[in-house]
Design a protein that fits this description.
Layout: E1 13-19, E2 28-33, E3 36-40, E4 45-46, E5 56-59, H1 62-66, E6 71-75, H2 81-84, H3 87-94, E7 98-100, H4 102-112, E8 123-125, E9 132-134, E10 137-144, E11 151-158, E12 162-166, H5 184-193, E13 197-201, H6 214-225, E14 232-235, H7 241-253, E15 257-261, H8 263-274, H9 287-291, E16 298-302, H10 312-317, E17 331-334, H11 343-355, E18 359-361, H12 376-386, E19 390-394, H13 398-410, E20 415-416, E21 423-428, E22 431-437, E23 442-446, E24 449-452, H14 456-467, E25 469-476, E26 487-491, H15 499-518, H16 521-524, H17 527-546, E27 551-558
Parallel strand pairs: 3-6, 6-7, 7-8, 12-13, 13-19, 14-16, 14-17, 15-16, 17-18, 19-20, 25-27
Antiparallel strand pairs: 1-2, 1-21, 2-3, 4-5, 5-23, 9-10, 10-11, 11-12, 21-22, 23-24, 25-26
Helix pairs in contact: 4-8, 6-7, 15-17
């Protein structure tokens, strides 16, 4: 058992978020009672432009790993990558059984099949209405609407202490097309029985009103597809099976077929059909089948709604995709919304299409997307059903968490707390108390290894990205006299083909040479002292001339 700085009280449940607080994604939450723990979700996050070369972030599982056999299981709410995407990277450190409903389990199996140790993971399929019993915890899956099949809240109960509803991702949608409607009756029943705490989705806690229905999107796509005669490409989140179904229905209405372009779409299609979804939808076309038809008779569904550079849509916008070329008069529909941090990458794709004369339609132009997360009116509705004693906002940045906490108070919740990753909270009938902190943070997938986000390689790339890089090579004899002029390479700072920059290069070489010659002879015999003098001189030169502090390295050769 991991050592805590306090004794766990028998009338309290302990909450430790390791991800999903202060950021979107990387969701990972621990619940503890009398030394036994369960984990809810094991998700990944997405890096931004401040971490060059990094795409994927992971929550640091050090505390969870330290629990050993006291970590009884990992219970998954649904199959979005920000809730299950870290399993492939982190499960070998945790080795706890995985629990998920059928569609989520199918997606996890697909991921585990890609790693050598995948067969070792114990994956249990959860049956609705059948609680999962893990030590002192019973976990009841509660059906919720979301932008993916089989999204669930988890009613986590400890006998004689209380029930915590961990909402996961959810919304209220009475026409979800595919998947669950939010189970109002069960939520009301939980509220009537008494709910200790709600640990809830804050994504849209700042947005007034209601998130809207998937049924509305379907009707609008039917109308929109009929307006165009040229090629139509549409992008959405690959996991939005309801949107795929709506696209199929809309295509049928205007006499078109549907082609999927992108591996993740085909993987989701396979998992959905294995799980009993899309039964009334014939197999989608692949690109070879679509090539046999007139382009104007096909709707092309493409991956890459978030601007991913290697996804289909980005390659199509660069005219670099083997299966689909778009031309002037064609249309691209973004049936999605940008995840915070992806806006610039998405805008670059849109601009490339527009430069080529391709029409671009987003949810600002037509109602082609609805969020999978609750707006403020839906949050209020949930609190009116559950009437919890405590509200803990998660899944959002600080401003979303703050607004969610305010809303909960306004909805009559007596106690609220705004968590941070690594903080320990005690939840009891007396309210919520912060009890301490465990190791937490974000890890980055760096090539084939996993490192902390403050790893020197990442920090160095960041410094180089903003300030450039300078490498100085000097060759001296045993006394420290220069044998040749210093060689300076200034990446991201100087252009060797620019006449002005050539003059700058001559200036920095002269300045370094003068400093070396003026250095006392005893110090010139010291490799470390001589290298530091050259490094400081070069860095000061570029700081004074360009207002940059480049990453500077010195190669000293003594002959």
């Amino acid at each position: 058992m991991a050592k805590l700085d306090f004794t766990m009280e028998p009338d309290a449940i302990y909450l430790v978020p390791l991800g999903g607080c202060g950021i979107f994604g990387a969701n990972m939450t621990l619940y503890g009672y009398k030394g036994k723990w369960i984990m809810v979700d094991c998700g990944m996050g997405f890096a931004d432009e401040t971490m060059p070369g990094i795409d994927i972030l992971l929550p640091d599982p050090t505390f969870a790993e330290s629990l050993g056999e006291d970590l009884l299981g990992i219970v998954l709410t649904h199959a979005h990558e920000d809730h299950i995407g870290a399993i492939n990277s982190l499960w070998p450190r945790l080795k706890a059984p995985l629990y998920a409903t059928k569609f989520t389990a199918e997606r996890i199996r697909q991921a585990l099949s890609e790693v050598e140790w995948g067969f070792q993971a114990r994956l249990e399929e959860v049956q609705l209405k059948t609680p999962v019993y893990l030590g002192p915890f019973s976990v009841q899956y509660v059906r919720m609407a979301h932008s993916i099949p089989e999204a669930h809240s988890l009613a986590i109960n400890v006998k004689d202490v209380g029930t915590i509803l961990h909402t996961g991702d959810w919304k209220i949608d009475h026409e979800p097309i595919v998947g669950n409607s939010t189970d109002e009756n069960e939520l009301r029943a939980l509220g009537d029985a008494g709910v200790l705490a709600v640990v809830g989705d804050s994504t849209n806690a700042m947005v007034p009103g209601h998130s809207g229905s998937e049924g509305t999107v379907r009707n609008n796509l039917i109308e929109l597809f009929g307006e165009f005669k040229n090629r139509i490409a549409i992008t959405c989140f690959a996991t939005n099976v309801a949107r795929l179904h709506s696209i199929y229905e809309a295509a049928q209405r205007c006499g078109r077929n549907v082609c999927l372009i992108g591996r993740s779409l085909w993987n989701v299609d396979e998992a959905a059909r294995r799980s009993g979804y899309l039964k009334d939808v014939p197999p989608f076309l692949d690109d070879e089948q679509a090539d046999m038809l007139e382009p104007e008779s096909v709707i092309y569904v493409c991956t890459g709604s978030q601007g991913e550079p290697r996804a289909a849509l980005s390659r199509i916008s660069n005219d670099d995709h083997p299966a689909l070329k778009l031309a002037e008069g064609d249309v691209v529909i973004f049936s999605s919304r940008a995840i915070p941090g992806n806006e610039r990458a998405i805008d670059r794709i849109k601009n490339r299409f527009l430069l080529g004369g391709v029409n671009v339609i987003t949810d600002r132009d037509a109602p082609v997307h609805v969020s999978g997360h609750p707006y403020r009116e839906e949050l209020k509705q949930l609190y009116s059903w559950l009437k919890p004693k405590i509200a803990i906002p998660v899944h959002g940045e600080q401003m979303q968490l703050e607004k969610h906490a305010e809303l909960a108070k306004d909805s009559g919740v007596p106690h609220t707390a705004i968590p941070a990753n690594g903080k320990i909270f005690e939840l009891s009938n007396d309210g919520v108390r912060e009890m301490g902190e465990v190791k937490s943070g974000m890890l980055a997938i760096e090539g084939r290894r996993i490192v902390a986000i403050d790893h020197e390689a990442i920090l160095m790339r960041r410094r180089i990205m903003y300030n450039g890089s300078v490498v100085v090579t000097i060759v001296v004899d045993r006394r420290g006299d220069l044998v040749a002029d210093p060689k300076v390479t200034a990446m991201g700072l100087l252009d060797d083909t620019s006449e002005l920059d050539v003059e700058y290069m001559q200036d920095v070489v002269k300045e370094i040479s003068d400093k070396v010659r003026d250095m006392p002879k005893p110090q010139r015999a010291d490799d470390a002292a001589l290298s530091e003098l050259v490094r400081v001189t070069a860095r000061r030169f570029f700081n004074e001339r360009f207002d940059r502090k480049p990453q500077t390295r010195v190669h000293l050769v003594r002959i």
